[in-house]
Design brief:
It is a single chain. This protein has 63 residues and is α+β, with helices and mostly antiparallel strands. Helix content is 27%, strand content 22%. It contains 2 helices and 4 strands; from the N terminus they run E-H-E-E-H-E.
Length: 63
Amino acid sequence: MKVAADRDACMGAGVCVGFAPDLFDLGEDGRVRVLNGEVSGELRDQADEAVRVCPASALSLTD
């Protein structure tokens, strides 16, 4: 599974970093950066939650 971020849609809330700090960070511009696009194991649960709670719907998961 892969996680992706739409940096143009990102509003910099940082919720993703709070739920999945191993997958996401905020760049110098305050927008999401994907640290690890490949998701497996416990990271999948973190990624699912981050995608679900993102206020800008800027995150997605694909198989």
